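quick one
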Amino acid sequence: MKICVLPGDGIGPEIMAEAVRVLKALDLKLDMEEALLGGCAIDAAKDPFPEATQKLAKEADAVLLGAVGGPQWDNNPRELRPERGLLRIRKDLGLFANLRPAILYPELANASTLKPEVVAGLDILIVRELTGDIYFGQPRGVEVREVDGLKQRYGFNTMHYTESEIRRIVRVAFDAARKRHRKVCSVDKMNVLECTQLWRDVATETAKEYPDVELSHMLVDNAAMQLVKNPKQFDVMVTGNMFGDILSDEASMLTGSIGMLPSASLDANNKGLYEPSHGSAPDIAGKGVANPLATILSAAMMLRYTFGNEAAAQRIEVAVKKVLAQGLRTGDIYEPGTTRVGTREMGDAVLAAL
Ligand code: IPM
Ligand code: MG
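structure w/ magnesium ion:
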């Protein structure tokens, strides 16, 4: 089992160190090799996704990623930004299915800004399409054109989906729903965008393969509203790349603790890239205070989805629940009456609880 480890930027190296320690403690014969992605790769190799990383990521069975990005690279040309490395690795490895669970741990019920009764027991899975849509659509750019009788700058992007791209991601959502509460809500903007009318049509057609799963449709603006109004109505939500980017950030904050949420990006053969849902948090980088649990839980997702080792995945997840029950908290989830710990101490506690 070969794992390509990409610590990345900001807090990435700190949180990844803890996830690697946890994986090593499981005695699973994992072959882990590190490479550069993001800003650190731009500094070292003038490329956010250098060739050595491409090679290692292709050879590996799974990729474990910390986080990429930081203010020092924000003004670089687009090709030399850390985020570009992330988009390229997704596209290159064909990681079209992004699974973003939003789970509220009972111990962290107070972390949400919503009323406890609205979010208690929350368990939503957002399935976001990750290699298509306006993110990758051509033509795109900013050009000077004559528009409305005026020579001016003109910015444009293209939203597009093929029916096969829609069908394969909708199937991922239905398959996931079968292991949960058998409800899929497909999110689109069919009242305005033709591309998403196709999305809705294909979702409806695909539902015929899954008579045991209930399909509903929702417009994205309403979905954004319903997520804060009554989030527990949802089981699995499936949507395109851009809507999924936005809704998954919203859903993560229902739990109040984005530092807790893992994610998986899978190809057609369950090869996957696993990363925390949060970013590189440059403001706290290097201070040893970041929450490593989302990365540790991402490692658990990797064991489950790519390596099919449900027992090992659960061992990690149970250990994380134990340390929460012990009252240990990093700064992002701290509340009075609990014990504030740093990144390393949190990792130590998970190791002890394994
Ligand atoms: C995410 C991030 C990325 C995205 C950025 C960093 C390119 O927001 O993974 O949600 O938009 O997909
Ligand atoms: Mg995002």
